[in-house]
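Regression report. Comparing outputs from two consecutive submissions.

Submission 1:
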Amino acid sequence: MITNLPTAEQLDESAKTAFFAGWVDLMRMISDFENYSQMSIAHQTAERAEYYRHCCAEIDKIYFWASQSNELALKAMIVKVSPYLLLLGVDNKLKGSVKDIDFTELRTLDAVDLLAVVSTATERQLAPEFRELFTAFRTRRNKIAHQGKADDRDDPLTLVALMARQYGTLWPDHRFLRDWFTYLSGTRHSYFHDGKWSTPHMQLYEILSPFFNHVRDGHMKALTGISRKTRRYCCLKCYSDGSLDRMGALETEFRTAYLSDNSHLSCLLCEEAFEVSRIKCSSHSCKGNVIATGDWEGACHLCGSYG
């Protein structure tokens, strides 16, 4: 009997963990430069290029995580049909004297065969472009595995676009921010989360700007379901739950919600909807007209000020 069979849920969770391990490093890499550079954005080109030359090892690591995520996600799709499909065409020599065999001790499909099995044995039909993306990540990972490093100098912003395409294809349900938050809630840093002075919201706040600043419009829609041009607002519930005021975070810099209709705000992070009033903000410096009702009655979802 084969024991310890993998489940689709376990593999999919591991795939997302691998993806966001790389994604968070990528966002921090970009954020570190933008937080500490003394130059205006218009004059950062040469300085940014020099900084990125120092990031080669970290970029290689992110490619490694992204490639691993691809393979785990494809295995999850296959295992959803049957875990035994992972043993297709693999010569496992079984011994009749052994009663139980642990699945992890068996050889499974090579990574190069995963896409073919997904397309023929599952209901998922991945876009043809994903094969190129899968191959690009796998080729880079193999260079690192065989040579120790890839010796390719990539702009991290190019990697942002590649990983946005990757996630949008593998998980097309527009739950990107929620999945990102779930990852942050389960890392070693979660040991310190006390709900007051340390929260996953604080960790997300520190690296959220590069996401909204650098993900292209088409990719943003694939990840979140909304256009990059859509005006975003502060979800006062997430702001409060994350104790962001304790770290001096501004409501204007933690905008994770959008108007789903004229009188409701939907949050990409907590995935809740809130009724709002469409009246002008009382602050003379704010042009907002989306005002909270209920628990945060009178607060502006754009600037955070109360009427």
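Submission 2:
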Amino acid sequence: MNIDNSTRLDAHFNSQQPFYDGIYAGESVEIPDTAFDVKDGERIVGCMDEGTADRVHIATPGSFILDGEEKAARMLQGKGVGTVTSHPGCAAAKAAMKMSGKYTNITQKDIDEFAATFSRRLAEKIGAKHEDIPLHRPSNFHIARGAVYDGSRGAIISDPNKGGMIVGNNFVIPPPMFRINRKHLGPERAISAMGLSASIATSDHSFAERISKENPFVVFALGHPTEKGLSSDALEKELQDIQFAVDGTRATLIEYFGSDIIKIVKLNAPQYTSRHNK
């Protein structure tokens, strides 16, 4: 990584420090119920990338691009989705192209077109609209020091008008984070996506060695208010116990990254009204 990018990464890392200092100190964390206030038919599907996850309710790698159109459409039917998004520079779209075995000499333009086409066709299948949205992060590196493992029906936490977090006694808009919607992905695939998030954050494409014992990668286990299998306690157990494929073997997040590098913080979504419970 060149010196300019390293300096920019330092700036992003340091700007997030006050927020994470509160988390590391064990201050209480809550999410206001307004973060979940979305009407049926208005939910937004998008990527887990921290550059887009601040604007979507159901976040998975590449807006379900690794599942294929038919399976993704079945998973999203009846979930009140109004928009399916795509974004430029999607790593999951590149992975899907490679997995298909149909493409060679893949360019960034090919990847962007593939991502947009998939999301557009998925939107058509479920009667939603498609939107290609810009990244809210630098295009050449990632800036997330944490992730939300979301067992709720999805919250827009980074929206200053609706979302935010209450850390201790202070209302804050959290810094960009990855988000994985566990409720819609299931445990094994969600843990795999979380492993990918932590791998990115600790790589040379992101904060690398800046993520450390003193400044671990934070995983917010956001539990569902009524479904026991998706409570914050259940999500914490999954994050500790379920293995994912990595480097030709299988390991839990703690086994692979170390207990000093991964910090799990439990919090629960507030009770939803009936229209918000899907």
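Expected: both submissions complete independently.
Actual: both completed, but the second showed a warning that disappeared on reload.
Relevant detail on submission 2: The two ends are 43 Å apart (CA to CA).
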